[in-house]
């Protein structure tokens, strides 16, 4: 009996330690925010009794030019501001609060994702396409952060690798998708913002995609790793880095392939290799698949930053038309182009498609609503992956 | 030439996209916060022109009872509040801002760590013990999140595994440290707050620790995975969960060992196994090493929540003295106990040591300043790991 009382005492000490620390720091242990409801409306709550005005800015709200949309929240008599959306389409959304003009995160939502130098709260509305972005009761793959040698960059570099459920205990060889991020991103972008592990787990479990390894590189060859993950320490990330679109990444991509094929049980043949990327990563995918013109059977350009021959100084961009023709003649199974109608890169993609049409190079084209957004890139990934390795 | 102009145009579009989005949402793209200086003082900056008072609350400030310490910041004529610390001891620190009483994160610092239901900004002051917590130019291990079968819990469960640099290409067998979190934690706690990968990378590179695998479990058997990583979705985490200290985790720990020894190249013998944990994880380590009394040569109790025989209903807590004696008689190389002088669990550890003294069971005892904090647990890990597998 004595030990039970002792146990109860300790539990109380623990709980009060937590509750009080929470109380003091957060002020609102009882608040639930966001509350995603059955009818797909979402309620946000934020305690700020002293604030004159609290707004919420969410990526589902229409932007005014460069200014993200925002809505004023309503304050109750306890100083809690709240706001409820209309029913939202199924997706992964991000938002921030603006307290008298100063942006803040939601202290009641621990789910945050960094996009370049910005950290925002996220939530998922299910019941549609975002069911693929959720962790469901299906077999789960493994996600590994490891380091590989890149002699071409004279660096050891960090890389994120998804291996599908069953890989570790199987004796089969697996195909590989190389999945590249956009400007400002790194080896954390696709796994965090792109929900790659969840999308792959779910598509594989549904029988819609072949089990495959997904390799998420860091396309900024000036970096060893994502901000905070290298010996540069915890610095403020910047959007543009040197040597991102000058051919160096494409030229040294062989280091990545060599590492993957030397360290994983993979189908080390063209038919077992796919490459895709968003924005800058689409540009990289275009040029890597051209520069190594008989290496990939599957190419995906998601809202690609297509700027042909931009820097003639790199050998990667030399002989553009000739190497593209070579790639075409060598053959491939899929050349997939996806872009949103309002994307600022739309017309460059249009020009590129005209070029492909002119030379008779076949491609699959998907045009969606929307612009240069992760909302679209998750959809493109969900559409592209089922087409691979069939 | 034309393509260069095109390229420049695209780059400008990209940069303005980012700069404007940043500008609009964050209001302060030029601000650096925190700025950790050579002399180990740290300056924080926060733009909030409309706020009446902005405070900073940091874990280096003395608390007032349960209330964390805080200091008022100073506003300049541009509406930027700032505060500079005295020289800080080398450590990993966390902090928040309090804007007219409402807690917020630092929008200029993208480095955040979740502790239970609280997300705080972090930074590192080097030049001392925290040099072990930084990513340095040394060979890096891999960190994998994967899932294992736990038949004892009728679940597939998520687990975090650190394998040291060289593991993948070696043919050697490695020893394993099972590292357990405290109440409110999960399989993300040690890798995020504990800086396990950095501490291990650095100690191994310095020749102070043997290369070893570190297995970070989720000690809450009611959970499949950390909040946001299971099919429960993105819910608000809670501190106390059912079945955390009722014997179920200890009883089913064999599932973890079986998974690790079946899937990794390890020394599957007592001499190749260590276990350690903080707080509730210390309690788990005590009971697991007793319940499997001839399994671990190394046991570490960090600020352990030692509550002997608390729940007699589980077979795990039966025959406490007898199984402990058995463990002693079977022999072991290290039984390490560390606790801070002001820890609220201090006297329970004192009583436990008296018990061990009484039965003649040898242990190594380290008493430090401070209390029940991650500051201490990182230190204990840094001290414990070099003693293993020698």
What is the CATH class designation of the largest domain in chain A?
Alpha Beta
Main sheet record of chain A: 8 strands, mixed
User: Ends of chain A: how far apart?
Assistant: 65 Å
The CATH homologous superfamily of the largest domain in chain A is termed Alpha/Beta hydrolase fold, catalytic domain
Number of distinct beta strands of chain A? 18
Name the structural class of chain A: alpha/beta
**Strand percentage of chain A:** 15-25%
How do the helices and strands follow one another from N- to C-terminus of chain A? HEEEEEEEEEEEEEHHEHHEHEHEHEH
Strand order of the largest sheet of chain A: 11-12-14-13-15-16-17-18
How many separate domains make up the residues of chain A? 2
- Average pLDDT confidence of chain A is 92
Total of helices of chain A:
9
CATH topology name of the largest domain in chain A, in short, is Rossmann fold
Task: Give the oligomeric state of the chains in this entry, treating copies of one chain as homo and distinct chains as hetero.
Answer: homodimer
């Amino acid at each position: 009996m004595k030990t039970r009382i002792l146990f109860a005492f300790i539990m109380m000490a623990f709980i009060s330690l937590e509750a009080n620390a929470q109380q003091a720091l957060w002020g609102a242990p009882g608040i639930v925010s966001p509350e995603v409801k059955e009818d797909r409306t979402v309620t946000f709550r934020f305690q700020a009794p002293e604030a004159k005005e609290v707004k919420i800015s969410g990526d589902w709200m229409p932007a005014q030019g460069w200014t993200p949309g925002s809505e004023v929240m309503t304050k109750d008599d306890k100083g809690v501001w709240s706001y409820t959306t209309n029913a939202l389409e199924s997706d992964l959304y991000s938002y921030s609060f603006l307290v008298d003009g100063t942006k803040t995160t939601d202290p009641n939502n621990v789910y945050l994702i960094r996009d370049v130098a910005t950290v925002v709260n996220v939530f998922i509305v299910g019941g549609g396409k975002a069911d693929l972005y959720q962790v469901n009761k299906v077999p789960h793959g493994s996600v590994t952060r490891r380091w590989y040698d890149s002699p071409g960059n004279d660096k050891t570099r960090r890389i994120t690798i998804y291996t599908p459920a069953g890989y570790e205990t199987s004796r089969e060889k697996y195909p590989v998708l190389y999945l590249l991020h956009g400007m400002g991103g790194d080896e954390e972008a696709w796994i965090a913002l792109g929900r790659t592990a969840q999308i792959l787990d779910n598509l594989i479990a549904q029988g819609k995609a072949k089990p495959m390894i997904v390799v998420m590189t860091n396309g900024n060859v000036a970096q060893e790793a994502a901000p905070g993950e290298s010996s540069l320490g915890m610095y403020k990330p910047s959007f543009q880095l040197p040597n991102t679109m000058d051919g160096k990444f494409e030229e040294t991509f062989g280091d990545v392939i060599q590492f993957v094929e030397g360290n994983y049980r993979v189908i080390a043949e063209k038919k077992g290799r796919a490459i895709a990327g968003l924005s800058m990563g689409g540009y990289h995918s275009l040029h890597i698949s051209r520069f190594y013109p008989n290496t990939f059977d599957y190419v995906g350009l998601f809202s690609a930053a297509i700027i042909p021959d931009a820097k003639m100084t790199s050998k990667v961009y030399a002989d553009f038309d000739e190497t593209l023709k070579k790639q075409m003649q060598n053959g491939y199974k899929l050349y997939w182009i996806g872009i949103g109608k309002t994307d600022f890169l739309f017309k460059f993609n249009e020009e590129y498609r005209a070029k492909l049409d002119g030379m008779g190079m076949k491609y699959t084209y998907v045009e969606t609503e929307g612009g240069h957004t992760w909302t679209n890139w998750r959809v493109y990934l969900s559409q592209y992956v089922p087409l691979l390795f069939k």
